[in-house]
Amino acid sequence: MIIDVNLYQKIREMYTVHQMSQRAIARELKISRNTVRKYCKGDNVPWERKEYSREPDVLTPDVMDFIRQCIKEDEAEGIKKQRHTARRIYHRLVEEKGFKGGESTVRLAVQQLKDEMPKAFIPLQFDPGEAAQVDWGEATVYLDNKKVSINLFCMRLCYSCDIFVMAFYRQNEESFLEGNVKAFEHFGGVPHKLIFDNARVAVKEGFGTHAKPQARYQALSAHYAFKMEFCNPSKGNEKGLVENLVGWVRRNILVPVPRVKDIDELNQILMTNCLKYRSHQIRGHEQTVGQMYEIDKSLLYSLPKYVFDSSKSISVSVDEYSTVRFDRNNYSVPVKYVGKNVSIKAYGNILTIFYRGQEIAKHNRSYGSNKTTYKLEHYIDLLERKPRAVFNAKPVKDHVKQELLEWGQTLPGGAKDMVKVLRLCVDYGSDKLLEIKKQIPAGVTPTVDLIRSYLIKHSIPEKSTQKIIDTVNVEEVDLSIYDRQYGVAQ
Prior knowledge:
Blueprint: H1 5-16, H2 22-29, H3 33-39, H4 61-77, H5 86-97, H6 103-115, E1 131-143, E2 146-157, E3 163-168, H7 173-187, E4 193-196, E5 203-205, E6 212-213, H8 215-224, E7 227-230, H9 240-252, E8 259-260, H10 263-276, H11 289-298, E9 312-317, E10 323-326, E11 329-332, E12 341-346, E13 350-355, E14 358-364, E15 372-373, H12 380-385, H13 394-399, H14 402-408, H15 415-428, H16 430-439, H17 448-459, H18 480-486
Parallel strand pairs: 1-4, 1-8, 4-7, 11-15
Antiparallel strand pairs: 1-2, 2-3, 5-6, 9-12, 10-11, 12-13, 13-14
Helix pairs in contact: 2-3, 4-6, 5-6, 15-16
Protein name: Transposase
Domain Integrase catalytic: 124-312
GO biological process, one term: DNA integration
């Protein structure tokens, strides 16, 4: 019987103060003698409950050993998505051990065994220059007013906790390799080993100590002379420093959500904050991150003279539309290269195109399928030869504001004048020409020469800062030397 505190108080008072017998207390309070016997001496209190702990008869030592073995096998394999569930253990017990109990009994036993095995981690300490941890994270930002998800490549030195963070569009191999190279340059040296997880960009097969690295990651390791070390699956604690960094960046740098023009501007913000972090002092450390970094840096491996090329490179032919195709997307080049073979170097965020070793075009890299990225300046020469196509040309519509196109249709020379205006757009930008449009009086018919005059006027400073000298000193010349030279009579 469970009693309340008031009844418990009466039992204790009657037994202790009034020294009544258990039988008399039971009769007076109209409760059982067993209840009085349980509470009268204060051996038990009504507000504490003892958990029910009777172990079902079906959970024999053999059954419990089988459940423990299943859990240990999961830990040893380290495969997160292929682990024993309580239901799977129950079915195995029925099939392999002839288990007669219920699934709920097994489920409770599994939970209790897991609770008995708490996760405990050993504190780690690294020497200067010894190691760095690498990880990826995701975040949301606004690029050119579009809400997009970007990927953060993070590296952190284990001794000083100095940080490097760079944003990429994707977590692909070329982004991963570029992130490593840029991090080494930021730190001014190479850690002796890099600790990373088993992501496909770095690991071809296996995991942990059995991992086989991808060929290009192995080449990066060979070139920069660092040792590769891979974590066991689901063991984020093995690179806890950098995992904490991912969260720190999201909370401290990317709140409020950044609104930037492009990913380059975002990376400038990230780099500014990485450098600023060196003035931070971590709790428990006697020096700032920057002071400890200087010690770290002195023991890093030196950077090799040759910078590892992290790009994915291919050779392609320029098609009749003056574009090249890479990874399911097209990119423009100047029209004079139509039909020629060019080389593409694709990095994480940019794509550069070369002809005979000379750079001829650079674009922000596109992801997705069947997108074409044009640059207006690549088609100006062709439009000057074929001006009638100017108002329907895709490179023009992609890069020139509709307001400027409508204004161009009012020019006396029509399409030819519009092409000349586009040439000015390449040199000065569309926004500058729209400013000129607003300054020309409404009753004045715009011409290309008039637009040029406004541009020239705005390119000359209003006031010259150079001091003008308004006096000239002229020295007197003795002309008699000419008479003597040519024998003229005096």
